[in-house]
Write a sequence for this structure.
């Protein structure tokens, strides 16, 4: 009886270890095999308006994914630019896809405040008009938040 309990726990442990190792290997392979897709890689396959409500209640999760993609997008642009980045004027980064990513995130979850705040701080250095649009959208969707 004790032997079968040990076998079951050992089997579960083996499955967990194999799963973790497989995930790590897959991640490493994806990093080494990744090709540069350029600006088109950040564009959305479906519009956020069409996805809203159609993702079976996972709007918040998809909004989080777009939020993380926006952080990675601008971070990659800054890293690619090197050490000489003027944070007051980021137009040289050609980060034209930042606004659509933040907009998709806030469309899927209008009460998710982080993309609005981030956009209000970073977008003016890229496109001041888009920063105002995003801030106004945040005010409309969250009138009680300053």
């Amino acid at each position: 009886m004790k032997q079968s309990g040990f076998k079951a726990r050992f089997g579960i442990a083996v499955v967990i270890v194999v799963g973790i190792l497989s995930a790590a290997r897959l991640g490493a392979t994806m990093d080494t095999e990744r090709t540069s897709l350029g600006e088109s890689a950040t564009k959305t396959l479906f519009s956020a308006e069409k996805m809203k409500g159609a993702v079976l209640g996972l709007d918040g999760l998809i909004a989080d994914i777009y939020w993380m993609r926006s952080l990675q997008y601008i971070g990659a642009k800054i890293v690619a630019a090197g050490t000489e980045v003027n944070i007051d004027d980021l137009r040289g980064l050609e980060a034209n896809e930042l606004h659509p990513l933040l907009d998709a995130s806030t469309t899927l979850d209008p009460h998710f405040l982080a993309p609005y705040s981030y956009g209000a701080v970073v977008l003016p250095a890229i496109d001041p008009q888009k920063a105002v649009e995003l801030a106004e959208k945040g005010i409309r969707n969250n009138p009680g938040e300053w």
Observations:
- Residues 35-42 have pLDDT under 50 and may be disordered.
- The CA atoms of residues 70 and 76 lie 10 Å apart.
- The radius of gyration is 21 Å.
- The first helix runs from residue 2 to 33.
